[in-house]
Amino acid sequence: CARHAGATAFGDASHARTTRPSVEHDGFVVRIDGAGRVLWVQVADVHHSIVDPSNPSLPPTLPRAEAMGVATVEGGVVVAGYFRGQLEARDFIFRSADRDGCIAYKLDDDGQPLYGFQAVGVSGDDASWCRATAVAAAPSVGDGADSSAVILAGTFVGVVDFGGMPYSSGAAAAGRDFVLRLDGRGRVEWVVPLGAHSAAWASRPQPVPSLATSPGAVHVGGAFAGAGAQFGGFARDGTGAASDAYIATLAAGDGAVRWVR
């Protein structure tokens, strides 16, 4: 999975895809068999440029999408990333606010969408955005556990609606990381904001959260800045640099933060 722009042949001409005019780039995921042959290509098709409501004389922002990660689960794969504008993945249509929105959708073994999830800035807030940067199959949390649940990690700024659960990055922070769990139907089970970013973070190359799992636990690594950054029930102080690294471990069942370093 990644992104592409213009005309791209995935393996051969039978799997060629072309982005729409005036699109920055589309996200895609490709399935390849053991001999290196392309079985199918699923492209996240974006369109509809966005005009800045505060200054309509500016050129419109180009729509874009990127697939940042893919996880294998029972019954297919889950792709996660971000998009801006209107995104179409076969039968599913997603619309972001004026900035990037987080997206995850499940594809079956033939590349057909089974569900879709998005987290976008609240209506009327043109400064909020959200990007998923990592996805992993959720660890089992007991007998009868959902074997197709996934964990997403990423970054958000402003007020973002995570499937009916709105969270704010806070007035003092330029943004926060997040980790959340989706069940096998793409419904949010829990969301945990992590850390805080400084204003300087927004103008620099942005480190993105990474994700790993172990039995019963979720491990997130990322960057934070400032004093009193919150990680669940833990608070940590940065060194005063533009960003410091952290590693946090959460319970897979309810997202409770166990420890942070």
- Total of helices: 1
Poorly predicted residue ranges: none
Structure summary, number of beta strands: 23
Structural class: mainly beta
Main sheet summary: 6 strands, antiparallel
Strand order of the largest sheet: 6-7-10-11-14-15
Morphology: globular
Helix content: under 10%
* Arithmetic mean pLDDT: 84
Q: In percent, how much strand structure appears in the residues?
A: over 45%
Order of secondary-structure elements: EEEEEEEEEEEEEEEEEHEEEEEE
How would you classify the quaternary structure? Answer: single chain
Termini separation: 31 Å
Key terms for this structure?
single chain; 261 residues; mainly beta; 5-stranded antiparallel beta sheet; 1 helix; 2% helix
Provide a short characterization of the protein structure.
With 261 residues, the chain is an all-beta fold. It has one helix spanning 199-202, and strands at residues 2-4, 7-9, 16-18, 26-32, 38-47, 64-73, 76-84, 86-89, 92-95, 101-107, 113-121, 129-137, 150-157, 159-162, 165-168, 175-182, 188-197, 210-214, 217-224, 229-231, 234-236, 244-251, 257-260.
